[in-house]
Specification:
The complex is a heterodimer. Chain A has four helices and six strands, in the order E-H-E-E-H-E-E-E-H-H. Chain A is α+β, with helices and mostly antiparallel strands. By secondary structure, chain B is α+β, with helices and mostly antiparallel strands. In chain B, a hairpin with a 2-residue loop joins strand 2 and strand 3. Classes of the chains: A alpha+beta, B alpha+beta.
Protein backbone atom coordinates (compact mmCIF):
# COMPACT_ATOMS: atom_id res chain seq x y z
CA UNK A 1 0.00 0.00 0.00
CA UNK A 2 1.19 3.44 -0.77
CA UNK A 3 -0.17 6.94 -0.94
CA UNK A 4 -1.36 7.45 -4.48
CA UNK A 5 -2.53 10.63 -6.19
CA UNK A 6 -6.24 11.07 -6.53
CA UNK A 7 -7.99 13.07 -9.17
CA UNK A 8 -11.67 13.33 -9.90
CA UNK A 9 -14.21 15.98 -10.92
CA UNK A 10 -14.43 16.90 -7.24
CA UNK A 11 -10.70 17.55 -6.89
CA UNK A 12 -10.77 19.70 -10.03
CA UNK A 13 -13.66 21.77 -8.74
CA UNK A 14 -11.88 22.18 -5.43
CA UNK A 15 -8.61 23.29 -7.01
CA UNK A 16 -10.46 25.77 -9.21
CA UNK A 17 -12.32 27.25 -6.33
CA UNK A 18 -9.75 27.26 -3.57
CA UNK A 19 -6.31 28.33 -4.66
CA UNK A 20 -4.97 27.75 -1.17
CA UNK A 21 -5.55 24.02 -1.14
CA UNK A 22 -1.92 23.31 -0.46
CA UNK A 23 -1.38 19.59 -0.57
CA UNK A 24 -2.10 17.24 -3.41
CA UNK A 25 -5.18 15.07 -3.38
CA UNK A 26 -4.29 11.53 -2.38
CA UNK A 27 -5.72 8.19 -1.43
CA UNK A 28 -4.34 5.63 0.99
CA UNK A 29 -5.90 2.22 1.53
CA UNK A 30 -8.86 3.39 -0.53
CA UNK A 31 -9.47 6.46 1.64
CA UNK A 32 -9.33 9.96 0.18
CA UNK A 33 -7.71 12.95 1.79
CA UNK A 34 -6.12 16.28 1.03
CA UNK A 35 -4.40 19.09 2.87
CA UNK A 36 -5.70 22.63 3.13
CA UNK A 37 -4.52 25.78 4.88
CA UNK A 38 -6.41 26.36 8.09
CA UNK A 39 -7.62 29.86 7.16
CA UNK A 40 -9.94 28.56 4.43
CA UNK A 41 -11.41 25.70 6.49
CA UNK A 42 -14.81 27.26 7.29
CA UNK A 43 -15.34 28.32 3.67
CA UNK A 44 -14.08 24.98 2.38
CA UNK A 45 -16.34 22.96 4.67
CA UNK A 46 -19.29 25.20 3.89
CA UNK A 47 -18.73 24.63 0.19
CA UNK A 48 -18.34 20.88 0.65
CA UNK A 49 -21.44 20.78 2.78
CA UNK A 50 -23.81 22.79 0.61
CA UNK A 51 -22.50 22.24 -2.92
CA UNK A 52 -20.93 18.80 -2.72
CA UNK A 53 -23.35 17.24 -0.21
CA UNK A 54 -20.69 16.32 2.36
CA UNK A 55 -23.19 17.20 5.06
CA UNK A 56 -22.01 15.08 7.97
CA UNK A 57 -18.96 16.03 10.03
CA UNK A 58 -18.02 12.60 11.32
CA UNK A 59 -15.06 13.60 13.40
CA UNK A 60 -12.68 16.41 14.11
CA UNK A 61 -9.41 15.70 15.82
CA UNK A 62 -5.71 16.48 15.80
CA UNK A 63 -2.35 14.74 15.69
CA UNK A 64 0.78 16.13 17.31
CA UNK A 65 4.10 16.12 15.40
CA UNK A 66 6.46 18.08 17.71
CA UNK A 67 9.37 17.96 15.26
CA UNK A 68 7.47 19.84 12.56
CA UNK A 69 7.45 23.62 12.31
CA UNK A 70 3.65 23.50 12.33
CA UNK A 71 3.31 20.87 14.99
CA UNK A 72 -0.41 20.09 14.90
CA UNK A 73 -2.29 18.42 12.13
CA UNK A 74 -6.03 18.95 12.32
CA UNK A 75 -8.11 16.16 10.81
CA UNK A 76 -11.67 16.65 9.60
CA UNK A 77 -13.59 13.60 8.49
CA UNK A 78 -16.62 14.28 6.33
CA UNK A 79 -19.28 11.98 4.97
CA UNK A 80 -21.86 12.44 2.28
CA UNK A 81 -25.16 10.64 2.77
CA UNK A 82 -26.05 11.11 -0.88
CA UNK A 83 -22.78 9.85 -2.37
CA UNK A 84 -21.98 7.40 0.44
CA UNK A 85 -18.38 8.64 0.45
CA UNK A 86 -15.95 9.76 3.08
CA UNK A 87 -13.42 12.52 2.76
CA UNK A 88 -10.60 13.55 5.06
CA UNK A 89 -9.21 17.06 5.23
CA UNK A 90 -5.96 17.74 7.00
CA UNK A 91 -4.60 21.08 8.00
CA UNK A 92 -1.29 21.98 9.61
CA UNK A 93 -1.24 24.62 12.31
CA UNK A 94 1.60 25.94 14.45
CA UNK A 95 1.44 26.00 18.23
CA UNK A 96 0.88 29.75 18.29
CA UNK A 97 -1.70 29.71 15.54
CA UNK A 98 -5.44 29.89 16.16
CA UNK A 99 -7.33 28.07 13.41
CA UNK A 100 -10.85 29.36 12.74
CA UNK A 101 -13.76 27.45 14.19
CA UNK A 102 -16.15 25.51 11.98
CA UNK A 103 -19.01 25.58 14.48
CA UNK A 104 -20.81 27.97 12.12
CA UNK A 105 -20.89 25.24 9.49
CA UNK A 106 -21.50 22.19 11.67
CA UNK A 107 -23.00 22.73 15.11
CA UNK A 108 -21.56 19.36 16.12
CA UNK A 109 -18.03 20.72 15.84
CA UNK A 110 -18.53 22.51 19.15
CA UNK A 111 -17.60 19.71 21.51
CA UNK A 112 -15.09 18.18 19.12
CA UNK A 113 -13.14 21.44 18.95
CA UNK A 114 -13.34 21.76 22.72
CA UNK A 115 -11.87 18.30 23.01
CA UNK A 116 -9.04 19.19 20.64
CA UNK A 117 -8.39 22.27 22.79
CA UNK A 118 -8.47 20.20 25.95
CA UNK A 119 -6.16 17.48 24.70
CA UNK A 120 -3.78 19.47 22.48
CA UNK A 121 -4.17 23.10 23.47
CA UNK A 122 -5.29 24.18 20.02
CA UNK A 123 -7.41 27.26 20.47
CA UNK A 124 -10.08 27.75 17.81
CA UNK A 125 -10.70 31.40 16.94
CA UNK A 126 -14.35 32.42 17.11
CA UNK A 127 -15.50 29.34 19.03
CA UNK A 128 -18.52 30.26 21.17
CA UNK A 129 -17.37 28.37 24.26
CA UNK A 130 -13.63 27.62 24.20
CA UNK A 131 -13.22 25.71 27.46
CA UNK A 132 -11.87 22.35 28.46
CA UNK A 133 -14.41 19.58 28.18
CA UNK A 134 -13.08 16.36 29.68
CA UNK A 135 -10.45 17.59 32.12
CA UNK A 136 -11.13 20.06 34.94
CA UNK A 137 -11.02 23.72 33.92
CA UNK A 138 -7.98 24.49 36.10
CA UNK A 139 -5.91 21.57 34.85
CA UNK A 140 -2.44 22.49 33.55
CA UNK A 141 -1.11 20.84 30.40
CA UNK A 142 -2.57 19.08 27.41
CA UNK A 143 -2.29 15.29 27.72
CA UNK A 144 -2.30 14.18 24.10
CA UNK A 145 0.72 16.28 23.22
CA UNK A 146 3.72 14.07 22.62
CA UNK A 147 5.78 15.87 25.27
CA UNK A 148 3.21 15.05 27.96
CA UNK A 149 4.30 11.83 29.63
CA UNK A 150 2.03 8.85 30.17
CA UNK A 151 2.37 9.05 33.98
CA UNK A 152 2.44 12.84 34.07
CA UNK A 153 -0.39 14.79 35.61
CA UNK A 154 -1.18 18.07 37.26
CA UNK A 155 0.05 17.25 40.76
CA UNK A 156 -0.97 20.61 42.22
CA UNK A 157 -4.53 20.14 41.05
CA UNK A 158 -4.68 16.58 42.37
CA UNK A 159 -3.28 17.60 45.75
CA UNK A 160 -5.62 20.52 46.08
CA UNK A 161 -8.80 18.84 44.89
CA UNK A 162 -8.40 15.19 45.77
CA UNK A 163 -6.24 15.59 48.89
CA UNK A 164 -3.70 12.99 47.79
CA UNK A 165 -0.11 13.43 46.73
CA UNK A 166 -0.24 11.45 43.54
CA UNK A 167 -2.54 9.05 41.82
CA UNK A 168 0.42 7.05 40.51
CA UNK B 1 -48.90 40.80 48.33
CA UNK B 2 -49.43 37.43 46.74
CA UNK B 3 -47.52 38.51 43.65
CA UNK B 4 -44.21 38.51 45.52
CA UNK B 5 -44.30 34.73 45.47
CA UNK B 6 -44.58 34.65 41.71
CA UNK B 7 -40.93 35.27 41.00
CA UNK B 8 -40.33 34.19 37.45
CA UNK B 9 -36.55 34.48 37.44
CA UNK B 10 -34.45 31.69 36.01
CA UNK B 11 -33.63 28.80 38.29
CA UNK B 12 -30.43 26.82 37.89
CA UNK B 13 -30.63 23.20 38.94
CA UNK B 14 -27.84 20.68 39.11
CA UNK B 15 -28.71 17.19 38.00
CA UNK B 16 -26.05 14.62 38.73
CA UNK B 17 -23.27 13.56 38.60
CA UNK B 18 -24.67 11.10 41.14
CA UNK B 19 -28.16 10.92 39.80
CA UNK B 20 -29.44 7.42 38.98
CA UNK B 21 -31.13 8.41 35.76
CA UNK B 22 -28.00 9.94 34.22
CA UNK B 23 -26.67 6.40 33.68
CA UNK B 24 -23.29 7.06 35.14
CA UNK B 25 -21.55 10.25 36.06
CA UNK B 26 -23.12 12.87 33.87
CA UNK B 27 -23.80 16.26 35.33
CA UNK B 28 -26.42 18.39 33.65
CA UNK B 29 -26.85 22.02 34.63
CA UNK B 30 -30.47 22.80 33.89
CA UNK B 31 -31.78 26.29 33.48
CA UNK B 32 -35.42 26.29 34.44
CA UNK B 33 -38.37 28.57 34.17
CA UNK B 34 -40.72 26.89 36.59
CA UNK B 35 -41.13 23.35 35.30
CA UNK B 36 -39.91 24.26 31.86
CA UNK B 37 -36.34 23.75 30.72
CA UNK B 38 -34.74 26.74 29.00
CA UNK B 39 -31.35 25.20 28.48
CA UNK B 40 -29.07 22.42 29.59
CA UNK B 41 -25.33 22.28 29.83
CA UNK B 42 -23.56 18.96 30.16
CA UNK B 43 -20.51 18.67 32.37
CA UNK B 44 -18.61 15.54 31.43
CA UNK B 45 -15.20 14.02 32.00
CA UNK B 46 -15.71 12.42 35.41
CA UNK B 47 -14.77 9.07 33.92
CA UNK B 48 -11.90 10.27 31.74
CA UNK B 49 -9.10 7.73 31.75
CA UNK B 50 -7.07 8.92 28.80
CA UNK B 51 -7.79 5.92 26.59
CA UNK B 52 -6.30 7.59 23.53
CA UNK B 53 -3.08 8.37 25.41
CA UNK B 54 -2.86 4.79 26.65
CA UNK B 55 -3.22 3.66 23.05
CA UNK B 56 -0.10 5.56 22.06
CA UNK B 57 1.86 3.74 24.75
CA UNK B 58 0.79 0.15 24.09
CA UNK B 59 1.46 -2.13 21.17
CA UNK B 60 -1.39 -2.67 18.76
CA UNK B 61 -2.39 -5.98 20.33
CA UNK B 62 -2.03 -4.78 23.91
CA UNK B 63 -4.36 -1.86 23.35
CA UNK B 64 -7.24 -4.10 22.22
CA UNK B 65 -8.52 -4.96 25.74
CA UNK B 66 -8.61 -1.26 26.64
CA UNK B 67 -11.20 -0.40 24.00
CA UNK B 68 -13.65 -2.79 25.71
CA UNK B 69 -13.69 -0.45 28.67
CA UNK B 70 -15.12 2.48 26.74
CA UNK B 71 -18.66 1.42 25.96
CA UNK B 72 -18.58 -1.34 28.54
CA UNK B 73 -22.07 -2.61 27.80
CA UNK B 74 -21.13 -3.34 24.20
CA UNK B 75 -17.50 -4.31 24.50
CA UNK B 76 -17.70 -6.71 21.57
CA UNK B 77 -18.59 -3.87 19.19
CA UNK B 78 -15.71 -1.76 20.42
CA UNK B 79 -13.33 -4.62 19.88
CA UNK B 80 -14.64 -5.30 16.39
CA UNK B 81 -14.14 -1.68 15.33
CA UNK B 82 -10.59 -1.60 16.64
CA UNK B 83 -9.63 -4.94 15.08
CA UNK B 84 -11.07 -3.88 11.70
CA UNK B 85 -9.16 -0.60 11.83
CA UNK B 86 -5.82 -2.27 12.53
CA UNK B 87 -6.54 -4.95 9.93
CA UNK B 88 -7.16 -2.21 7.39
CA UNK B 89 -3.86 -0.62 8.37
CA UNK B 90 -1.89 -3.83 7.80
CA UNK B 91 -3.95 -4.88 4.79
CA UNK B 92 -5.22 -8.11 6.34
CA UNK B 93 -8.68 -9.57 6.51
CA UNK B 94 -10.20 -12.02 8.96
CA UNK B 95 -11.05 -15.43 7.44
CA UNK B 96 -14.73 -16.12 6.60
CA UNK B 97 -15.29 -18.32 9.64
CA UNK B 98 -14.01 -15.63 11.96
CA UNK B 99 -16.15 -13.02 10.19
CA UNK B 100 -19.32 -15.04 10.68
CA UNK B 101 -18.51 -15.57 14.37
CA UNK B 102 -17.80 -11.87 14.72
CA UNK B 103 -21.16 -10.96 13.23
CA UNK B 104 -23.00 -13.35 15.56
CA UNK B 105 -21.25 -12.12 18.69
CA UNK B 106 -21.57 -8.47 17.71
CA UNK B 107 -25.27 -8.78 17.03
CA UNK B 108 -25.77 -10.63 20.31
CA UNK B 109 -24.01 -7.72 21.93
CA UNK B 110 -26.33 -5.27 20.21
CA UNK B 111 -29.26 -7.18 21.67
CA UNK B 112 -27.65 -7.12 25.13
CA UNK B 113 -26.95 -3.40 24.88
CA UNK B 114 -30.47 -2.59 23.72
CA UNK B 115 -31.92 -4.77 26.48
CA UNK B 116 -29.99 -2.90 29.14
CA UNK B 117 -31.13 0.36 27.58
CA UNK B 118 -34.75 -0.79 27.49
CA UNK B 119 -34.80 -1.93 31.11
CA UNK B 120 -33.17 1.17 32.53
CA UNK B 121 -35.02 3.58 30.26
CA UNK B 122 -38.36 2.09 31.29
CA UNK B 123 -37.27 2.19 34.91
CA UNK B 124 -36.36 5.88 34.62
CA UNK B 125 -39.78 6.66 33.32
CA UNK B 126 -41.55 4.64 35.98
CA UNK B 127 -42.21 1.24 34.40
CA UNK B 128 -40.36 -1.06 36.76
CA UNK B 129 -41.37 -4.46 35.43
CA UNK B 130 -39.47 -4.54 32.09
CA UNK B 131 -36.13 -4.25 33.89
CA UNK B 132 -36.50 -7.71 35.40
CA UNK B 133 -37.43 -9.25 32.08
CA UNK B 134 -34.67 -7.57 30.09
CA UNK B 135 -32.03 -8.49 32.64
CA UNK B 136 -33.21 -12.09 32.46
CA UNK B 137 -32.72 -12.24 28.69
CA UNK B 138 -29.50 -10.27 28.79
CA UNK B 139 -28.15 -12.84 31.19
CA UNK B 140 -28.53 -15.50 28.48
CA UNK B 141 -26.43 -13.42 26.10
CA UNK B 142 -23.77 -12.87 28.75
CA UNK B 143 -23.69 -16.61 29.40
CA UNK B 144 -22.89 -17.21 25.75
CA UNK B 145 -20.07 -14.67 25.98
CA UNK B 146 -18.82 -16.32 29.14
CA UNK B 147 -18.86 -19.74 27.53
CA UNK B 148 -17.05 -18.40 24.52
CA UNK B 149 -14.25 -16.36 26.06
CA UNK B 150 -14.60 -16.52 29.82
CA UNK B 151 -15.68 -12.92 30.30
CA UNK B 152 -19.15 -11.46 30.47
CA UNK B 153 -18.77 -7.74 30.02
CA UNK B 154 -15.29 -6.68 28.92
CA UNK B 155 -14.90 -9.66 26.67
CA UNK B 156 -11.89 -9.00 24.45
CA UNK B 157 -13.60 -11.48 22.16
CA UNK B 158 -11.68 -10.70 18.97
CA UNK B 159 -8.04 -10.47 18.04
CA UNK B 160 -6.40 -8.50 15.27
CA UNK B 161 -6.69 -10.82 12.29
CA UNK B 162 -9.55 -12.98 13.53
CA UNK B 163 -10.37 -14.90 16.69
CA UNK B 164 -8.31 -16.31 19.49
CA UNK B 165 -10.67 -19.16 20.36
CA UNK B 166 -12.54 -21.63 18.23
CA UNK B 167 -16.30 -21.61 18.80
CA UNK B 168 -17.27 -24.04 21.55
CA UNK B 169 -19.28 -27.17 20.79
CA UNK B 170 -22.72 -26.09 21.92
CA UNK B 171 -22.31 -22.55 20.58
CA UNK B 172 -24.62 -22.90 17.60
CA UNK B 173 -27.25 -24.71 19.59
CA UNK B 174 -27.19 -22.20 22.44
CA UNK B 175 -27.35 -19.19 20.14
CA UNK B 176 -30.18 -20.73 18.18
CA UNK B 177 -32.16 -21.55 21.32
CA UNK B 178 -31.68 -18.02 22.55
CA UNK B 179 -32.83 -16.50 19.25
CA UNK B 180 -35.88 -18.73 18.98
CA UNK B 181 -37.03 -17.87 22.48
CA UNK B 182 -36.05 -14.24 22.31
CA UNK B 183 -38.40 -13.42 19.41
CA UNK B 184 -41.31 -14.25 21.72
CA UNK B 185 -39.76 -12.24 24.52
CA UNK B 186 -39.72 -9.08 22.40
CA UNK B 187 -43.44 -9.58 21.85
CA UNK B 188 -43.84 -9.69 25.62
CA UNK B 189 -42.01 -6.40 26.07
CA UNK B 190 -44.08 -4.84 23.35
CA UNK B 191 -47.22 -6.06 25.01
CA UNK B 192 -46.13 -4.39 28.20
CA UNK B 193 -45.02 -1.14 26.61
CA UNK B 194 -45.90 -0.49 22.96
CA UNK B 195 -49.57 -1.14 23.55
CA UNK B 196 -49.57 0.61 26.89
CA UNK B 197 -51.35 3.93 26.73
CA UNK B 198 -49.45 5.45 29.64
CA UNK B 199 -46.15 4.52 28.00
CA UNK B 200 -47.17 5.91 24.62
CA UNK B 201 -48.52 9.15 26.09
CA UNK B 202 -45.42 9.57 28.18
CA UNK B 203 -43.06 9.30 25.21
CA UNK B 204 -44.86 10.73 22.20
CA UNK B 205 -43.71 14.18 21.23
CA UNK B 206 -41.00 14.28 23.89
CA UNK B 207 -37.49 15.37 22.93
CA UNK B 208 -37.99 15.76 19.22
CA UNK B 209 -34.83 15.84 17.13
CA UNK B 210 -35.51 16.16 13.42
CA UNK B 211 -33.33 14.91 10.58
CA UNK B 212 -31.82 18.33 9.87
CA UNK B 213 -30.68 18.75 13.48
CA UNK B 214 -29.31 15.22 13.53
CA UNK B 215 -27.10 16.05 10.57
CA UNK B 216 -26.05 19.36 12.10
CA UNK B 217 -24.89 17.64 15.26
CA UNK B 218 -23.52 14.53 13.57
CA UNK B 219 -25.93 12.30 15.47
CA UNK B 220 -25.92 8.66 14.35
CA UNK B 221 -27.46 5.34 15.29
CA UNK B 222 -31.05 4.75 16.39
CA UNK B 223 -31.49 8.45 17.21
CA UNK B 224 -30.78 9.37 13.59
CA UNK B 225 -32.95 6.58 12.22
CA UNK B 226 -35.87 7.59 14.41
CA UNK B 227 -35.86 10.94 12.64
CA UNK B 228 -36.43 9.33 9.27
CA UNK B 229 -32.92 8.98 7.86
CA UNK B 230 -32.36 5.48 6.51
CA UNK B 231 -28.69 5.13 7.28
CA UNK B 232 -26.76 2.35 8.88
CA UNK B 233 -23.03 1.71 8.46
CA UNK B 234 -23.77 -2.00 8.10
CA UNK B 235 -25.74 -1.20 4.93
CA UNK B 236 -23.94 1.88 3.65
CA UNK B 237 -20.39 0.57 3.95
CA UNK B 238 -20.66 -3.11 4.88
CA UNK B 239 -17.88 -4.76 6.86
CA UNK B 240 -17.33 -8.29 8.18
CA UNK B 241 -19.62 -9.69 5.51
CA UNK B 242 -22.80 -7.88 6.58
CA UNK B 243 -23.71 -7.58 2.91
CA UNK B 244 -24.30 -11.34 2.86
CA UNK B 245 -27.19 -11.14 5.30
CA UNK B 246 -30.68 -10.03 4.63
CA UNK B 247 -31.96 -7.43 7.08
CA UNK B 248 -33.88 -4.17 7.21
CA UNK B 249 -32.94 -0.82 8.66
CA UNK B 250 -35.89 0.18 10.85
CA UNK B 251 -36.78 3.86 10.73
CA UNK B 252 -39.50 6.16 12.03
CA UNK B 253 -40.45 9.68 11.07
CA UNK B 254 -41.10 11.89 14.07
CA UNK B 255 -37.78 11.72 15.89
CA UNK B 256 -39.38 11.73 19.32
CA UNK B 257 -38.69 9.48 22.29
CA UNK B 258 -41.33 6.98 21.30
CA UNK B 259 -39.84 6.60 17.82
CA UNK B 260 -36.40 6.00 19.24
CA UNK B 261 -37.89 3.35 21.50
CA UNK B 262 -39.65 1.80 18.54
CA UNK B 263 -36.54 1.77 16.34
CA UNK B 264 -34.48 0.01 18.98
CA UNK B 265 -37.15 -2.62 19.52
CA UNK B 266 -37.27 -3.27 15.77
CA UNK B 267 -33.48 -3.39 15.66
CA UNK B 268 -33.41 -6.22 18.17
CA UNK B 269 -35.66 -8.22 15.86
CA UNK B 270 -33.35 -7.50 12.94
CA UNK B 271 -30.34 -8.56 14.98
CA UNK B 272 -32.01 -11.89 15.70
CA UNK B 273 -32.70 -12.21 11.99
CA UNK B 274 -29.03 -11.64 11.16
CA UNK B 275 -27.86 -14.08 13.83
CA UNK B 276 -30.18 -16.82 12.60
CA UNK B 277 -28.88 -16.42 9.05
CA UNK B 278 -25.27 -16.35 10.15
CA UNK B 279 -25.54 -19.35 12.44
CA UNK B 280 -26.81 -21.53 9.60
CA UNK B 281 -23.86 -20.84 7.38
CA UNK B 282 -20.75 -20.57 9.51
CA UNK B 283 -18.03 -21.57 7.02
CA UNK B 284 -15.31 -24.02 7.96
CA UNK B 285 -11.70 -23.02 7.90
CA UNK B 286 -9.14 -21.11 9.88
CA UNK B 287 -10.18 -18.50 12.43
CA UNK B 288 -7.04 -16.40 12.27
CA UNK B 289 -5.44 -14.65 9.32
CA UNK B 290 -1.72 -15.01 8.86
CA UNK B 291 -0.39 -11.92 10.51
CA UNK B 292 2.99 -11.42 12.18
CA UNK B 293 3.23 -11.84 15.93
CA UNK B 294 5.22 -8.62 16.12
CA UNK B 295 2.91 -6.16 14.46
CA UNK B 296 4.47 -3.19 12.72
CA UNK B 297 1.94 -1.65 10.34
CA UNK B 298 3.43 0.40 7.50
CA UNK B 299 3.33 4.18 8.02
CA UNK B 300 -0.07 5.53 7.11
CA UNK B 301 -3.42 6.45 8.53
CA UNK B 302 -6.89 5.00 8.24
CA UNK B 303 -10.36 5.73 9.52
CA UNK B 304 -12.61 2.72 9.97
CA UNK B 305 -16.07 2.79 11.48
CA UNK B 306 -18.76 0.32 12.41
CA UNK B 307 -22.37 0.52 13.47
CA UNK B 308 -22.16 0.13 17.23
CA UNK B 309 -25.42 -0.13 19.22
CA UNK B 310 -25.18 3.60 19.96
CA UNK B 311 -24.25 4.81 16.51
CA UNK B 312 -21.18 5.18 14.34
CA UNK B 313 -18.10 4.10 16.25
CA UNK B 314 -14.95 5.06 14.39
CA UNK B 315 -11.24 4.56 14.88
CA UNK B 316 -8.72 6.88 13.28
CA UNK B 317 -5.30 5.30 13.62
CA UNK B 318 -2.01 6.86 12.56
CA UNK B 319 0.93 4.50 12.22
CA UNK B 320 4.54 5.65 12.01
CA UNK B 321 5.78 2.16 11.25
CA UNK B 322 6.69 1.36 14.83
CA UNK B 323 5.25 -1.16 17.30
CA UNK B 324 2.85 1.34 18.79
CA UNK B 325 0.19 3.49 17.16
CA UNK B 326 1.33 7.08 16.74
CA UNK B 327 -2.19 8.21 17.41
CA UNK B 328 -5.45 6.40 18.12
CA UNK B 329 -8.53 8.50 17.89
CA UNK B 330 -11.87 7.06 18.89
CA UNK B 331 -14.95 8.64 17.39
CA UNK B 332 -17.41 7.89 20.17
CA UNK B 333 -21.09 7.82 19.20
CA UNK B 334 -22.27 8.61 22.75
CA UNK B 335 -20.13 11.74 23.00
CA UNK B 336 -21.34 13.14 19.71
CA UNK B 337 -24.98 12.19 20.32
CA UNK B 338 -25.00 13.69 23.81
CA UNK B 339 -24.21 17.06 22.33
CA UNK B 340 -27.74 17.20 20.93
CA UNK B 341 -29.21 16.98 24.44
CA UNK B 342 -29.40 20.74 24.82
CA UNK B 343 -31.42 20.97 21.63
CA UNK B 344 -33.75 18.15 22.67
CA UNK B 345 -34.59 19.36 26.17
CA UNK B 346 -35.27 22.97 25.24
CA UNK B 347 -38.89 23.68 26.05
CA UNK B 348 -39.46 20.28 27.63
CA UNK B 349 -40.62 19.73 31.18
CA UNK B 350 -38.11 18.83 33.83
CA UNK B 351 -39.56 15.33 34.17
CA UNK B 352 -38.92 14.77 30.47
CA UNK B 353 -35.20 15.40 30.85
CA UNK B 354 -34.87 11.98 32.45
CA UNK B 355 -36.72 10.38 29.56
CA UNK B 356 -34.60 12.23 27.01
CA UNK B 357 -31.26 11.34 28.58
CA UNK B 358 -32.38 7.72 28.64
CA UNK B 359 -33.47 7.77 25.04
CA UNK B 360 -30.11 8.97 23.68
CA UNK B 361 -28.65 5.80 25.22
CA UNK B 362 -25.30 7.06 26.41
CA UNK B 363 -22.60 5.22 28.27
CA UNK B 364 -20.37 7.58 30.17
CA UNK B 365 -17.36 5.32 29.83
CA UNK B 366 -17.47 6.11 26.14
CA UNK B 367 -18.39 9.77 26.45
CA UNK B 368 -15.40 10.45 28.69
CA UNK B 369 -13.01 7.75 27.47
Amino acid sequence: MAVTPWSSPLTERLSDRFTYVAGEFSTYAGQRFFTATSAILPALLEYLKTDESFDFLVDLTAVDYPQRAQRFELVYILYSYRLNERLRIKSNVAETEKPPTVTGVFAGANWLEREAFDMFGIEFAGHPDMRRILLPDEWQGHPLRKDYGITQMDNDWVRENLGIDSGQ
Amino acid sequence: MATTFLDSSELVLNMGPQHPSTHGVLRVILKLDGEKVIGAECVIGYLHRGVEKIGENRTYQLFAPYVDRMDYVSAVSNGLGYCLAVEKLIGAEAPPRAQAARVILTELNRVASHLLWLGTHALDIGAITPLFYTMREREEVLKIFENYCGARLTTHAFRIGGLQYELYDEFEEQVKTFCDEFAGKIDEYEELLTGNRIWVDRLTGVGILNAEDCKQYGVTGPVLRASGVVWDVRKAQPYSGYDRYDFDVPTRRNGDTFDRYFVRMAEMRQSVRIILQAIQQIPDGPIMARIPKVLKPPPGEVYVSIEAPKGELGYFIVSDGSLRPYRVRVRPPSFVNLQALNKMVKGALIADVVAIIGTIDIVLGEVDR
